């Protein structure tokens, strides 16, 4: 299964209550549509052959017999379909009637799963007709001339062992520990639910959250299909609610109260799910003692062309696309940063902070965090020593931005020009200052860090680090220069998120004058400003021209570190996310740069200063990322050469 993607679907057919032949025609038609769309597993609603609202007709032999006959016809009509279809129907077995899901493929019945939890409260009275699957007396039945596995202990696994799925029916999801929880621990990566959940005010929101949360708890895909508007409305109404969720994210959802049939589909990322299950060492703990054992039914699975994925791929995975969600995220992250720094200040007993301010985004965010932390501690902002240190590459624009920003923050401002000190150092080490190489650049970065550290010692202060997560991933920092501090408040903030945080603070926490300065900083190109300005006095060293767009690197970093994605898969996802913005060759070029730099620069990450984790991705050697500094990138780069 290349890159781990697997297409699943949920169907809500038109229906006639008790009209088994009509209902089966609809099911056959939707299976055909699903086959054309490349759906590999398709789930239908509960009791989809008969209709859910048949009432005491479930005690009629005519209905039960016709349901079997129509299943036989569905098998014949879909015998050439490789799509696994999960169909609901009643089955009479050993003096009991069971509400069942029947899994079929290519004219073969793979297995039959009875409903475990049969509701009998409020508008539900299923126990009048159906028994729980727990009461089954056998583990195999004869159905449509085939001997097939039967029971609530079935899981379905493809012949290669790459995809395993489980089935539950409606109420099974609503109990404290759903069957899908045990199915997931037994290996099911995807759960399918055949449901008939009626509509009352607000229920659809709760139902959506239930499906979403169960997919999150199980680290699984969850595909749900509920009966549509053509069920009986004698007492209740059904809306036809279908959903596809993955690990807490809603990928696709049907429209409710639609009279026509509906078919939704999306792709589940099995590779991502498996990666997180392996990392989550608590995931399997409950399964050790529950005593639940499952039988696995094998089936054939056709390969899915991963290049055809339809699901949305966010180009900026660290930044919510919805403005309201983004504002909430920024508020929370800023609170984490400020609370972390406040704790460190309280613990050390220090009353001063020392921070270098360049007029760039990172130092701007760090000073904003520091100012807020001092406000929380009731320490005057004058105790923040904000130091700007012009060097060979400092432009008038960034210098002015830095000075105006520090003034607006009402902190103590100090200006220390580093040119003479750097020239002296060049002389001491025998370096020609006209050679603008890595020595020329790093001398400036280390001189600035030396100044900050020494002033912190002199004043009894804490040096606040300004470097961000993206720079750490790429090693775009000078070892023992801007790489080092006494507390690094931005260490878990990726570059693509820094600008949104600064903008959020500007819009929500600052007065007009300070806001105006921040907007100017936001419009300044990203640069370390270590090389002299151009002939016009403007920035001559733009970071993204050298190492590539940060939005690409943040995308690569997220998928590699968060989900262990392979380079080939990252490339596929990036092509989808940045379609029309970057060419395939450009994406591949910068992905190679990312991989090479990420492996070669681990030594800088192995000795990072303390700093707060704010999101799911962090590179702290004490927390999320432990990697040998001499690991090689050969396998990762070789895979890219094959793409």
Overview of this protein structure:
By secondary structure, the chain is of the alpha/beta class. It has 2 domains: 2-288, 4-Layer Sandwich (Nitrilase/N-carbamoyl-D-aminoacid amidohydrolase); 323-547, Rossmann fold, CATH 3.40.50.620. It contains 19 helices and 20 strands. The strands form 4 sheets. Strands 13-12-11-10-9-8-15 form a 7-stranded mixed sheet, covered by helices on one side. A 6-stranded mixed sheet has the order 5-4-3-2-1-14. Residues 6-270 form the CN hydrolase domain. GO terms for molecular function: ATP binding; glutaminase activity; NAD+ synthase (glutamine-hydrolyzing) activity; NAD+ synthase activity. Deamido-NAD(+) binds at residues 442, 471, 476-479, 604. It comes from Acetivibrio mesophilus.
């Amino acid at each position: 299964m290349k890159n781990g993607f697997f297409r699943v679907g949920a169907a809500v057919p038109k229906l006639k209550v008790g009209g088994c032949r009509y209902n089966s025609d609809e099911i056959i038609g939707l299976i055909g549509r699903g086959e054309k769309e490349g759906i590999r597993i398709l789930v239908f609603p509960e009791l989809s052959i008969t209709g859910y609202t048949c009432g005491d007709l479930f005690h009629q032999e005519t209905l039960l017999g016709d349901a079997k006959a129509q299943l036989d016809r569905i098998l014949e009509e879909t015998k050439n379909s490789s799509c696994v279809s999960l169909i609901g129907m009643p089955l009479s077995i050993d003096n009991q009637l069971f509400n069942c899901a029947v899994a079929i493929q290519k004219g073969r019945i793979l297995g039959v799963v009875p409903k475990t939890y049969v509701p009998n409260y409020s508008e539900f009275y299923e126990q009048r007709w159906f028994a729980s699957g727990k009461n089954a007396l056998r583990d195999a039945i004869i159905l449509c001339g085939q001997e097939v596995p039967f029971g609530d202990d079935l899981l379905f696994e493809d012949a290669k062992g790459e995809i395993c799925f489980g089935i539950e029916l409606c109420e099974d999801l609503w109990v404290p520990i759903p069957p899908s929880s045990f199915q997931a621990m037994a290996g099911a990566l995807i759960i399918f639910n055949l449901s008939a959940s009626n509509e009352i005010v607000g229920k659809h929101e709760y139902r959506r959250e239930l499906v979403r949360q169960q997919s999150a708890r199980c680290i699984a895909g969850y595909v749900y299909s509920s009966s549509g508007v053509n069920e009986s409305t004698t007492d209740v109404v059904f809306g036809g609610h279908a959903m596809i969720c993955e690990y807490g994210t809603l990928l696709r959802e049907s429209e409710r109260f639609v009279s026509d049939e509906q078919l939704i589909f999306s792709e589940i990322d099995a590779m991502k799910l498996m990666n997180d299950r392996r990392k989550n060492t608590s995931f399997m703990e409950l399964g050790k003692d529950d005593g639940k054992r499952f039988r696995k039914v094998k089936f054939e699975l056709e390969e899915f062309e991963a290049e055809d994925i339809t699901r949305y791929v966010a180009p900026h995975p660290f930044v919510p696309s919805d403005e309201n969600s983004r504002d909430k995220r920024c508020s929370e992250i800023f609170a984490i940063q400020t609370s972390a720094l406040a704790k460190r200040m309280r613990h050390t007993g220090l009353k001063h902070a020392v921070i270098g301010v360049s007029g760039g985004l990172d130092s701007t965010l760090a000073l904003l965090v520091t100012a807020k932390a001092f406000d929380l501690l009731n320490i005057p902002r004058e105790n923040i020593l904000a130091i700007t240190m012009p060097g060979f590459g400092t432009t008038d624009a960034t210098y002015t931005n830095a000075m105006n920003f520090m003034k607006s923050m009402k902190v103590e401002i100090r200006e220390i020009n580093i040119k003479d000190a750097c020239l002296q150092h060049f002389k001491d080490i025998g370096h020609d200052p006209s050679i603008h190489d890595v020595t020329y650049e790093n001398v400036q970065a280390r001189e600035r860090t030396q100044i900050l550290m020494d002033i912190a010692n002199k004043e009894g202060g804490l040096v606040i680090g300004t470097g961000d997560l993206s720079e750490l991933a790429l090693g775009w920092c000078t070892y023992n220069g801007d790489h080092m501090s006494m507390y690094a408040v931005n260490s878990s903030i990726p570059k693509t998120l820094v600008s949104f945080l600064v903008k959020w603070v500007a819009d929500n926490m600052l007065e007009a004058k300070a806001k105006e300065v921040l907007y100017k900083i936001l419009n300044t190109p990203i640069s370390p400003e270590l090389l002299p300005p151009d002939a016009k006095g403007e920035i001559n060293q733009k970071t993204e021209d050298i190492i590539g767009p940060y939005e690409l690197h943040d995308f690569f970093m997220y998928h590699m570190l968060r989900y262990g994605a392979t380079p080939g898969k990252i490339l596929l996802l990036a092509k989808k996310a940045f379609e029309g913005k970057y060419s395939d060759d450009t994406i591949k070029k910068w992905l190679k740069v990312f991989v090479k730099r990420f492996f070669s620069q681990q030594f800088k990450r192995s000795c990072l200063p303390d700093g707060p984790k704010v999101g799911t991705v962090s590179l702290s050697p004490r927390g999320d990322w432990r990697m040998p500094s001499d690991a090689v990138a050969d396998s990762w780069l070789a895979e890219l050469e094959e793409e």
